[in-house]
From TrEMBL:
Residues 114-205 form the Phage integrase central domain. The keyword Transcription does not apply. It comes from Deefgea tanakiae. This is Integrase arm-type DNA-binding domain-containing protein. Gene3D superfamilies: 1.10.150.130, Integrase, DNA-binding domain.
Amino acid sequence: MPRAKSESAEKPRNLLTLLEIKNAKLPEGKAETTLNDGGGLYLVVATNRKRWMYRYGLHGKMHRQWLGEFPKVSLAQARKLRNDALNLVEEGKNPRIEKQVAKIAAQYSMANTFEAIALEWHAKELESGSWIPSHAERILKRLKADIFPIIGMRAIESLETRDLLYPLTLVTQRGTFNLAKAYRQYITVIMRFAVQTGRIKTNPALVDADRKLTHYS
């Protein structure tokens, strides 16, 4: 099915030069002025800054989206952002809303990595008074040394038994079997905490299989 044509799709593009942008001045008596690069992309020149703006029509209404300031966002980058936004418009999507959704999804993802949840668990245990400071410090140091570099940035819901087993395997290859047992305990309770706080439904550290983490108990 052909994509819908947006209003800015039919307009000429890439009209500005870098020299024009650098030399753009604010006319006397005006608060701002705009330079048209075509395809809905404008450079809005104000007293102390120059900002990129994308104007687009969607569902019979005009909208605008700010793409960043020049020169932090270069002319080439602004055009790419304009083209990306234009593709969304042609699919009937609102670029501003899609950007907000992506931002929320990224924040959720960062808040639900193994490392983020492990740190949340660690803070909770420390605050509860169940650990003495030296014990808490030792656990955190161990996690940072051998667990976080391997699975720390993984989304908690994406982790399977084999993923949790991998850092333990690396530790045992060094001959530090007691440390592997300690790590197995940490990982199991962190994943249990993830279940308790609604991040995942089941704890993959407790599955019944030959490769289960309790192999290191």
